[in-house]
Write a structure and sequence with these properties.
The complex is a heterodimer of chains A (169) and B (170). In chain A, 0% of the residues lie in helices and 51% in strands. By secondary structure, chain A is an all-beta fold. Chain A has one domain: Jelly Rolls, CATH 2.60.120. With 170 residues, chain B is mainly beta. Chain B has strands spanning 5-12, 19-22, 31-38, 47-54, 61-68, 73-78, 85-87, 97-103, 112-120, 128-136, 145-149, 160-166. In chain B, the strands form two sheets. In chain B, strands 1-12-3-8-9-10-5-6 form an eight-stranded antiparallel sheet, with no helix packed on it. The model of chain B has no long low-confidence stretch (mean pLDDT 96). The chains are: A mainly beta (169), B mainly beta (170).
Chain lengths: 169, 170
């Protein structure tokens, strides 16, 4: 039986950073699974984790999510957002995101993804899930992880980003 | 490329049991992925929470959860690990809950952080879902995982649990 779940790339930060880029993503898989764990350097606030595809930072992403920060969960979303909102990090409390990108190499459909994430402690602990659509039919060949505009802090040493490729056959 | 997603162990109950335990988990993977199809005999309830215990320890555990039972939604924080759901005694017969838990860095000295999804469909009114993030703040590698009912109910026959190892070898 062929292997259908391969690790395409992984990186662990040895110095702080505000942006991590994976380029030249092979087009030989059907879907992608991305695992993030890590903290940030901000003392007072959580810092979100966002993704951009193929260097597109325009308002071409739509997302819908649910989040809890200790009270009744709330829904959120936007239709012309500048990236995919896929996680949260805190200082001194490991954040986690598990992201599934469906049909990333397809060249005839918009791209959709799901994310589940959370961070147990820190100044703004939370858990949530989101779905995002990137309104572009291009195959995804570059993924950039960054912090949203207007937020402070950096991804701390030890943050790990791993991309797995899944084949349907 | 190296094979990165491997079934380490699987158990299907042929009779009721208080728990399922995977022990001697090898430390040769990066992450673990746990899939459970479960039902308990919790009385008077449609659903039950799964409880996980790593290495026999319930200290330094924490979770945050979003729970919906079709009519309401709420968040919870716990000092134990309650990822996912099973169905229970009042659920329609032969209906089992489904749970998936992705556990990161289980073999490192970091806190063991996971995300989970669970559903307890009832094939009638009263279904439920649970989304969670969990943490075990312990530097030891996870070598055993015990799966049981939060309410000390009995896991029912045909309850199945499978543990996968995932390796980030390029």
């Amino acid at each position: 039986m062929p292997a259908t779940y391969d690790c395409i790339a992984t990186t662990t930060l040895s110095s702080t950073s505000t942006s991590i880029v994976f380029s030249s993503i092979p087009q030989t898989y059907t879907d992608l699974v991305i695992i993030f764990t890590g903290t940030n350097t901000t003392n007072n606030n959580a810092m979100s984790l966002e993704m951009e595809f193929n260097s597109d930072s325009g308002g071409n992403y739509s997302y819908c999510g649910i989040i809890e920060t200790g009270s009744t969960p709330t829904g959120n979303g936007a239709i012309n957002y500048n990236g995919a909102s896929v996680g949260a990090t805190n200082r001194n409390s490991q954040g986690i995101s598990v992201i599934n990108i469906i049909g990333y190499s397809n060249t005839s459909t918009f791209k959709s993804l799901t994310a589940e994430y959370g961070t147990i402690n820190g100044p703004e602990p939370q858990s949530g899930a989101s779905v995002t659509m990137w309104r572009n039919q291009s195959a995804i060949n570059t993924i950039e992880f960054n912090r949203p505009a207007g937020q402070t802090g950096t991804f701390d040493v030890g943050c790990t980003f791993t991309i797995y490729g899944i084949k349907k056959a | 490329m190296a094979i990165t997603f491997i079934a380490i162990a699987t158990t299907e109950l042929t009779s009721g049991a208080a728990s399922i335990t995977f022990s001697s988990i090898p430390a040769t993977y990066t992450d673990l992925y746990l899939v459970i199809s479960g039902r308990t005999n919790r009385s008077g309830a449609i659903q039950d929470n799964i409880q996980l215990i790593y290495n026999g320890s319930t200290s330094s555990q924490a979770d945050r959860r979003i729970f919906s039972d079709m009519s309401s939604i709420a968040s919870f924080t716990d000092a134990l690990l309650y990822p996912g759901l099973t169905t229970a005694n009042s659920a329609t017969g032969s209906v089992f809950g489904s749970t998936m838990v992705y556990i990161t860095n289980y073999a490192t000295s970091n806190s063991k952080v996971s995300v989970s999804q669970g559903t307890a469909e009832n094939n009638a009114s009263g279904g439920a879902m649970n989304l969670g993030v969990e943490s075990w703040a312990n530097s030891a590698a996870i070598t055993s995982i015990q799966i049981s009912s939060r309410h000390s109910a009995t896991l029912q026959p045909s309850t199945t649990a499978t543990l996968y190892g995932i390796k980030n070898t390029v």
